[in-house]
Design a protein that fits this description.
Largest sheet: 4 strands, antiparallel
Number of domains: 3
CATH architecture of the largest domain: Orthogonal Bundle
Structural class: alpha+beta
Helix content: 40-55%
Radius of gyration: 24 Å
Number of strands: 10
Length: 385
């Protein structure tokens, strides 16, 4: 995901000078600044178009667009293509935005226009829900282990593990899962972190140590050794983590529905873009696509990004009988969308959903197509370690 973004010089902030924790807040302002500068954005588009145009014919084929579409999906927080039918549908819609659903190739001007719309939409989302990029080099973790907070935290974690006959190694791995980024620990569930940070430290323990039964005293002592080892490993191999959090409580929907002018304008534009039959009707199957189009304005994530929200959306569609696959005219469409949004709002107001995510960004990402990385002559610094 971080391959989509860059940080300006001087935007990092650590504890004191020299090496240390780095925090970069991505709030969309850099993207808005880029798109708003016509000369800079044109140069940027030229560079990215040339990068994607593998056969140098001055147009982008569907195959040549695929890396850009994959990057957009990653930036939206979607799983990789092929892992979910729902997210694959969104990838298809992003591609359709470029090709208008029927073109085999896309010109540079068309690419520029669609990319501008997508970037501004992403900027609006980041302005609403900023992403914090953290450089984790072991300093925060070491400070946590050496602080008075460590022992009561470790005791509390151990009490939830219910070790029984579990080995020391198993207990320590389960305990790592409960440590947070705020305590200086990158997500242990990430395969890169597990392979490159945790496993090398565990190898410093003997097999007999890891397999023996564990008491709370032994756990405290050995878990502390493990964390200090991980801190040292992070100092040698810092990890970049993208952290975001959001609470979906229906307030965005309520704000939208209270502004009739904005709602009418949004629904007019959304209806215009939906496929129609010869009677100027559209299938109710496209309601999820329509909801995706207005998700940002309603303070909702893209469909497929948050499972709990997807479940509420699906239930709302069922509640208003909008899942029968029948056709609808414009008036029926607007009424259904308003009813669906109302149902979603009531559900979220009664039971808000808090989402916190930590995505590890490591070197393999540097080789992927990074459509939002700045051009080589940019004065910004790429976010790679």
């Amino acid at each position: 995901m971080a391959s989509w973004f860059w940080r300006k010089r001087g935007s990092s902030a650590g504890k004191g000078s020299g090496p240390g924790p780095t925090k970069v807040v991505l709030d969309g302002s850099d993207i808005e600044e880029l798109v708003g500068n016509k000369e800079a954005f044109s140069s940027y588009v030229d560079h990215k178009f040339q990068e994607l145009d593998r056969d140098h014919d001055g147009k982008l084929s569907v195959r040549e667009l695929e890396p850009a579409v994959a990057d957009i999906g990653a930036a939206l927080g979607l799983p990789a293509q092929g892992s979910s039918p729902d997210s694959d549908h969104i990838y298809s819609e992003v591609l359709s935005e470029f090709t208008h659903g029927k073109q085999d190739v896309v010109s540079k001007s068309e690419f520029k226009e669609v990319l501008s719309d997508i970037l501004l939409g992403m900027a609006a989302g980041l302005r609403r829900d900023p992403i914090v990029i953290l450089r984790m080099d072991g300093q925060d973790l070491r400070e946590f282990v050496e602080s008075p907070k460590f022992e009561p935290t470790a005791v509390s974690i151990f009490s939830t593990i219910e070790p029984g006959n579990a080995s020391l190694g198993k207990c320590m791995l389960l305990a790592l899962e409960q440590l947070k980024v705020e305590q200086g620990m990158p997500p242990s569930s990430d395969t890169w972190v597990s392979s490159n940070i945790i496993e090398p430290v565990l190898q410093s323990f003997s097999s007999d140590q890891l397999e023996k039964p564990v008491s709370d005293e032994v756990f405290l002592e050995e878990f502390k050794k493990l964390l200090l080892g991980i801190a040292q490993r992070l100092q040698e191999h810092p990890v970049i983590v993208a952290h975001s959090e959001n609470t979906f409580n229906g307030s965005g929907i309520r704000r939208l529905l209270s502004n009739k002018f904005e709602v009418d304008k949004l629904l007019d534009a959304t209806w215009k873009d939906l496929p129609k039959d010869r009677h100027h009707k559209s299938s109710k199957e496209y309601l999820r696509i329509a909801l995706d189009s207005i998700a940002a304005a309603a303070g909702l994530p893209p469909y497929g990004a948050v499972n709990e929200i997807d479940a509420i959306v699906n239930e709302a569609i069922r509640m208003v009988n909008a899942d029968d696959g029948k056709s609808m005219n414009e008036e029926e469409f607007k009424k259904l969308i308003a009813e669906i949004l109302g149902c979603i709002m009531l559900q979220l107001e009664g039971r808000p959903i808090f989402v916190s995510s930590n995505s590890v960004v490591n070197e393999p990402l540097a080789s992927s197509s990074s459509i939002l990385c700045p051009a080589p002559d940019s004065t910004d610094l790429p976010l790679k370690e």
